[in-house]
Amino acid sequence: xxxxxxxxxxxxxxxEEELHRRVAEMGEELYRRFEGKNPLFLGVLKGSFVFMAxxxxxxxxxxxxxxxxxxxxxxxxxxxxxxxxTHDLQQDITGRHLIIVEDILDxxxxxxxxxxxxxxxxxxxxxxxxxxxxxxxxxxxxSADLSGFTVPDEFVVGYGLDYAQQYRNVPYxxxxxxxxxxxx
Length: 184
Ligand code: PRP
Description:
There is one protein chain. By secondary structure, the chain is an alpha/beta fold. It has a domain at about 15-70 and about 80-150: 3-Layer(aba) Sandwich (Rossmann fold), CATH 3.40.50. About 25% of the residues lie in helices and about 30% in strands. The protein has four helices and nine strands; from the N terminus they run βαβαβββαββββα. α1 packs across α2. The model has no long low-confidence stretch (mean pLDDT about 95).
């Protein structure tokens, strides 16, 4: 029997196995790039929490983790363009090599804002890692240094990504049925 959440999912876009395989590759790639540099994995909450947890375990480099929480969608389906920090850094990042971990790069508003913010805070380098990239929606000149999957302009949920704060615990990336977000 389908769960209440599964019934609202139109199709599976990326399976658990595909996620696992790609995240392992990304972890190894980051190991090669950051071995000996003591990077700081910086997750952008909330969406990145599942990817972050898997990525740091796939990358056995000496490092530490930090989080920042921002909001620009305010439960809408398109970015408002105004990025607000809702939970700020809890440590000094001066001179650190940052690995920013995002679940999805969409318009680019969030990362354009954060890149500037981290530079003003004194980061030594900034590497943008995103699980999903939706280049068709980009409005800011920003791109990922490492991306897991390029996705079409569909409403994706699961593996940390939400609709109205739900579906984050779906273990794969799925496409939501349009009637879910057009009729509530
Ligand atoms: C999502 C996602 C990114 C951002 C990407 O966050 O996690 O941070 O949108 O979109 P952009 O490229 O258009 O800025 P959201 O504001 O939905 O918050 P959440 O992470 O708490 O789900």
